[in-house]
Amino acid sequence: MSLDKKTILNYICCPICKSDVSQTGTRLTCKTCGKIFTVSNGYVRMMSDSTNDIKLSIRKWDELYKKQFDDQTFYQDFKVYKERYFDSVYSQIKLEKKLSKNSIYLEIGCGPFFIGQLIANECKMIVGVDFCPHALMIAKKMLDEKSIKNYLLIQADILALPVKSNTVDLIYGGGVIEHFNDTKKCLSELYRVTKQGGVSINTVPCLNIGSLTYRQVWGNIPNFPVLRQFAEFIHIHILRGKHMVFGYELSFLPSHLTKLHTEAKFRKTTVKNFEIEPEFNFIPKTMRAPFVYLAKKSPLFWPMIKVSAFK
Ligand SMILES: [Zn+2]
């Protein structure tokens, strides 16, 4: 594993003030604000002080990963991901940016880091960031079993990334950035860590008739004036998050995503449909067929879009 001092000092900074850190044994100390972090279980622990909603999300997700870790179901999940989804996802990433032996790949919300495991040999370094300890423990176990050395795993909050500025060639987030109330802050962090000439690619739910209907099953918030306030009022205040099974989740219009990325200073942004096989497993079986039909026939029902932002 690559948690040697040189790797850490090359890529890691303080999540709060972004200064360099110094390392003594398993202890990392910010050279400016003095905040102390640790290295344990094969990953760097650099959570800044989380708000209560983030703490709740961590607990909820980590329970899920702990179960996968204990049951070892991640081996089967990896097999399914590799056989059914990886080629499609990776080809859509490569369309925007090709990796080379000098590339740094960063995945935000990496979970067990399946993509990282499959592309590590194409990059100089793969960096996985997630806030769940058990997701990172699964990732570490699998990376080590594959004898992959060029990785760095960090437990962190994406709104306060402990990654040095201008270091990353390609950022990928598969359904991550829609879970933050403050999208601008999130995109500013992604911009900061991206190298000149690098790209940040994220898939997010598309705001269309689909998100206004079936996505309401889990409390999606359309990010559109008035609609957003209305949906937040209904889902958070009236229903008290009852349907928000994935926590807070926004859907976006392509034009709004472009605007947000431009405000975060990216020089060029493109938005395309993210090609997936719509399965709609989350909808009760009896209601599924019409949505699959509509998603395939009409862009108004297509569920996911890919936003690529170039620095
Ligand atoms: Zn600091």
Overall description:
By secondary structure, the protein is of the alpha/beta class. It has a single domain (5-310), classed as 3-Layer(aba) Sandwich (Rossmann fold). Helix content is 38%, strand content 22%. The protein is built from 10 helices and 13 strands. The protein has helices at 5-11, 52-71, 74-94, 114-119, 133-145, 183-193, 209-213, 227-238, 254-263, 285-297, and strands spanning 21-24, 27-30, 36-40, 43-45, 104-108, 125-130, 151-155, 168-174, 194-205, 221-222, 250-251, 268-273, 304-310. It has an 11-stranded mixed β-sheet, with helices on both faces. A hairpin with a 2-residue loop joins strand 1 and strand 2 (27-30). The protein is globular. The chain starts with a helix and ends with a strand. The mean pLDDT is 87. The structure holds zinc ion. GO terms for molecular function: S-adenosylmethionine-dependent methyltransferase activity. This is Putative methyltransferase.
